[in-house]
Structures are given as C-alpha cells and as structure tokens.
Model the fold of this input.
Amino acid sequence: MRLAPFASVLFGAVAIYAAVPAHTSPTLKEAFRDDFLIGAAVNRRQFFEDDLRGVPLIKAQFNSITPENILKWEFVHALPGRYNFDAPDRYVAFGETNHMTIIGHTLVWHERTPKWVFQNEDGTRVDRETLLRRMHDHIQTVVGRYQGRIKGWDVVNEALNEDGTLRQSPWMKIIGEDYIAKAFEYAHEADPKADLHYNDYSLEKEPKRNGAIALLQKLKARGVPVTGVGLQGHMKMDWPTPEEEDATIAAFAKLGLKVMITELDIDVVPATQKNRTADIAQNAQPHAESNAYADGLPQAVQQALAKRYADLFAVFLKHREVVNRVTFWGVTDGDSWLNFRARVNHPLLFDRSGQPKPAFDAVIRSAAQGAHATETKP
Ligand code: XIL
Done:
C-alpha cells in the first residue's frame, strides 16, 4: 500500500491523505518535471547498492543526487597528498547510470576538515600562502577529476554566523575573507562549466540572510564565478514560515542567482534550547531532550507534517523560474542525520520501511495544484 494523490477526502479545509494502491501515484521527479529537479542526499550503502530498501526509491523518485558525506575533505583527502576516490567514483557512476544530475558537496567548510590542513608538521599554524596552496590542490584534484560529470558544487559551506558576520573559521583566520572568492576561482578554473554555489543554513533568518546578500553582492560585483545559492532547508514545524521562505527566495533571486533547496528536512521532534539550528557541532553535544515520537508519529502530527510540506512546496513552486532543484537530506526517515543521539525522528517523505507518508501525498498534490495555478494564469 502507498499513498496516492487525488485520493484525499476533504473535510472542510482539512485534507485527510488516504492509503491507496501504489501504481496510482506519480513519482516525485515526474510530478515536478516541468518545475525543478528533485534530489536526495545519498549515503555510501545507497550508491554501493547495498541498501535494498533505499536504492529502488532513489531510482524511481529522484533525478538528482548529493553525496551525504563522502566528498567532504576528511573522507576524500584524509591525509596530506593522499586522495581516496573509491567511494566518490562509485557515487558518480551511480548518478550517471541512472541519468541523474550529480552534485558535489562540499569543498571548503570548517567542519569535516582534518586538522593537518591548517597545521605545519610541527603543529604550528600554516601561513596564508600555504593554506591557499592546499585549498588549490584540493579543489583542482577533486573538482578536476569529475569535470563535466559533477554538474554543480557547493563550493563554500556555512561561512556565516547567525548575525550575518563572517564566521571565524580557520579558513577565515589564516587566509582572510578572500578565502571565499579564491575557493570559487579555483573551482571555476578546475571546471569552467560547473555551477558553483554558496550553501548555508538559517538564511531565512533576517540578519544571516542580509549577511549572505551582502557577501554574494560583493562577490558578484568583483566578478567571482558564483552562480547560485543553496538554502539548506533544515526546517522545523514552525520555522521558517512560508512567508519567510518566500521572502528569502525572492531576495536571492533579485541578485540574479539560481536558488536551490539543498538539504530539505523537517525536524518534528520538539526542540530543546540547544538544537535549534543545523549547526552540527551543537547537535553533537549530549544533553537531555525529549524523544517524543520514539514509538512512531501520531496521526495528527503526520497530517500536520503533510500540510507543512504542502505549504513549503507551494512557495518553491511559486518561484519555479529561479528554484532549479529541491533536494531532501536523505531518503527514508531511518537515514536521516536528525536521528542524532538516538532521537527517533520523522523528517522526510518516506518512513522507515520505505513507505510514502501522508507528506509524500501532500507534496505530489502540491505539484498538481501548482500546474493548475500556472494554467489558469491570465
Ligand atoms: C551531515 C551528515 O548528514 C551527517 O551524516 C554527518 O555526520 C554530519 O554532516 N549541513 C551540511 C551537511 O552541509 O553536510 C550536514 O550533513 C548537515 C548540515
């Protein structure tokens, strides 16, 4: 059994998403074929085709993939001068075999980068020239290897603080703020045709959004080859509002940039004070928290999540001229990074057994409504 579109029964304004046989439902990639790509972050077991539950879903539902971890510096380049491309090669081959748009994630980030990158052999901090050379070698080697095959790269990830100022990462401290421009220039040099993105979370919050706008404006004014902005889209049930999402996409579109939702998921487990953002350092801190839905998601929350997804997709569809991809951060709920520290989370469209949830049905319905809205334009 799975949940099909158009099978919902309307009781007033409340849509009840009913279970009907599988074959009646279009897939996500079909439903949004004329709007944007539908992507998923995939893990190693998936592109090695060991995950027998996830792989058929990925092939059927998605036309773009992002590697959840294996292209991060510490995985692909754990030791100086030693690259390991076994997993990345399999990832890219999986995407090509299945005719998908293949994304690279990520080149320059303060997380998941080994300490040696920023140190001399004696443990002292490297100078600017050395770090720029290491950054150049890394980007040249990794982007160059997949030139023409990886379509778009998250070049710089999470360079901003919540208040919109530049994060004091080792990149920033050692190189200075032009590390961002340099990363884009090196990526462009390695693959002149690739799309190059700035990617970050919580850009829906105004101070951070304004910081990103100022940064991207400056980069564009200087001719730095940035082509798009990735809104990670790690969302809550009550944040961001559809209005905030709408204003955020519109603001970046005005800069002449493509906009992508790059890591979409909706954290349904009630938050503690400490894990309100996608900051992976915060989320790794142990602290007491609720695990409210350890035994499954109650129907009412299931329906609320479906409505939440429908509301967000209505916004993405409104901006389909500039939004060229919506990527989920995982395939089934069991894959999600939001299950950190034994929380049982339910943030995606497919449940732990790979069955589509009411949210899946709601997203498919939003596509039909979006198409209808376009057709009826004067
Ligand atoms: C996460 C992965 O999902 C986890 O498996 C890993 O342990 C930590 O990183 N923002 C990003 C992603 O850009 O790379 C992060 O992915 C989630 C937050």
Summary: The longest strand covers residues 258-267. Residues 68-69, 157, 232, 263, 278, 280, 337 surround XIL (CB under 6 Å). Residues 13-18+26-273+287-373 form a domain with the TIM Barrel fold (CATH 3.20.20.80).
